[in-house]
Amino acid sequence: xxxxxxxxxxxxxxxxxxxxxxxxxxxxxxxxxxxxxxxxxxxxxxxxxxxxxxxxxxxxxxxxxxxxxxxxxxxxxxxxxxxxxxxxxxxxxxxxxxxxxxxxxxxxxxxxxxxxxxxxxxxxxxxxxxxxxxxxxxxxxxxxxxxxxxxxxxxxxxxxxxxxxxxxxxxxxxxxxxxxxxxxxxxxxxxxxxxxxxxxxxxxxxxxxxxxxxxxxxxxxxxxxxxxxxxxxxxxxxxxxxxxxxxxxxxxxxxxxxxxxxxxxxxxxxxxxxxxxxxxxxxxxxxxxxxxxxxxxxxxxxxxxxxxxxxxxxxxxxxxxxxxxxxxxxxxxxxxxxxxxxxxxxxxxxxxxxxxxxxxxxxxxxxxxxxxxxxxxxxxxxxxxxxxxxxxxxxxxxxxxxxxxxxxxxxxxxxxxxxxxxxxxxxxxxxxxxxxxxxxxxxxxxxxxxxxxxxxxxxxxxxxxxxxx
Length: 469
Fold this sequence. Notes:
Layout: H1 3-13, E1 23-26, E2 30-31, E3 34-37, E4 50-55, E5 71-72, E6 85-89, E7 92-95, E8 115-119, H2 127-141, E9 145-151, H3 155-162, E10 166-170, H4 177-187, E11 191-194, H5 197-208, E12 217-221, H6 233-238, E13 242-245, H7 248-258, E14 264-266, E15 286-290, H8 299-312, E16 317-321, H9 329-338, E17 345-349, H10 354-360, E18 363-366, H11 376-383, E19 388-391, H12 396-399, E20 406-409, H13 414-425, H14 428-445, H15 448-465
């Protein structure tokens, strides 16, 4: 049967479509979990029809029945109960069903709930893992359905379970690809979010073959390593519908290599508000660092700076909070003794509530020699209203305003670090001023609600931007 014959037969079966302005109509027929509107189903007089507004954009090829494929309207312009177009296939426009919210789990604003598959295949509990899990937990609390996918038996999946999140574990994803695709269909996922490079490859493999109309994929990157154009990267990015960068440097790298029509933005890690800042108790000035005991965290550099500070102000105390990882507490204690500051430094090990120890301090330190694509410790120091002395690595120059909320120093330079600490240790008014400024910066950029709002918006914009491949 020719196309014209089929179109004329359709015209005899249904009254012609009469769009009003930029509005088109679709029927609510259900097919395989999604609502598919065929040109033959468009009826303006159908009581079950909903209006789906569209906006005119770059001309696209016409569908099999001569209807132009128009871009969907912006998300905020959609009326309640409608959902953006996912794509077209041979004249059909497939529209995902927007689940009606029952009111038991409130959503922020007029956003719609989304079923999210978040792939976190980090082999250890890293900053990337914490960034991803904080987003997953927060969005789950806002009424979205979130499942964390990852390597069975590894810390990210254990941490997700402790947070009460649903999980999907696997051991050898490429050997289990068919089963994982089936699992993705069973869960009804509407968006696949990849938090690592290997997760990105897996997400595209799962989403591309999910159905005739593939699922949207969003890549979140919080890695300190430089982004590179590796073999096959352009194939992956051509099938990626959104990008979230944990800092501006990552976003600039991405835009210089793979920028395209997909939505992209920086979303800084957020932390829950611990409440109004509480001044430290009366006593000697205390300088604190909260970080795992690892060479990259710069504990040795801080101890060398501490020796210089103590020579000028013998009353100053140092508090070191963090679990042993690649450096032992015994090693650092011996190093402090050799520098003559063993009596001035307290090592606590891992603690259940780091914020309690941060409040004991007058000044916070992040002495990292590298990495720091995200810095939860920096955000938490600001949230409790303490001035922060940090090294100029990773995201820290974006977090700390030098001379306003704290100080930035060269990494691995004990003299520079000691100079910044001495300036704050000697001036209570300066500590208070910069601490208050740090708290205001936290409230404006690093609050948990802002983090979740921006993440949610980009997730939904990624769904909205999906175009047929």
